[in-house]
Amino acid sequence: MHVALGGTFDPVHDGHLALFERAFELGDVTVGLTSDELAPKTRHVDRYVRSFEDRKRDLVAELEPLAESHDRAFEVRELSDPTGIATEPKFDYLIVSPETRNGGERINEIRRERGHEPLEIEVVDHVMAEDGERISSTRIVEGEIDRHGNVTPDRNGRGATRPTADSSDTSQ
Fold it and tell me: What is its main location (predicted)?
């Protein structure tokens, strides 16, 4: 089986890891990673998004041990369009979160228009932070929580613009 999922993954957090885990349970995985041009357009909040290369490096580091533990292959491809790779005929499954389910349905409409079979859409529930709210990259970069959902009231967040050279925490 071939599994697709996509996102900005800036930063990768435990909610993303739940998506990846389910993907590797189902098959070999292709992750569409938003391009530098697309990434800001997919944000609900105006914030700085790290470069494609930096995000890809961190994403691969997270995917490698998961792929190995499931004896699966993976690749990371650049997404320049929101429906991206999942409209290609080779995929069987699409992994989505609850808020991206509608995007998955749109992908299946495009697939039908192109004469491809629809994808099985697997919705993976959100992972909750210790405060009962969902873990999200936006909450992490705003300094509310860390990537595991621990509340971090003393941590500074990331702004809407590229950090200055004297910033010490570039992994937010």
Answer: cytoplasm
Can you tell me the distance from the alpha carbon of 66 to that of 54, in angstroms, rounded to the nearest whole number?
19
Three-state secondary structure call for residue 74:
strand
Instruction: Tell me the backbone φ, ψ of residue 92, rounded to 5 degrees.
Output: -110, -35
Question: What's the domain range around 38?
Answer: 2-127
- Here the CATH number for the domain that contains residue 92 is 3.40.50.620
The whole model's pTM is what?
0.87
Residue identified by tokens 């890809």 is 56
Count of the separate structural domains present in the chain: 1
> How confident is the model over 3-23, as pLDDT tens digits?
999 999 999 999 999 999 999
Tell me the pLDDT of the chain averaged across its residues: 90
Alpha-carbon span 99 to 18, nearest angstrom: 15
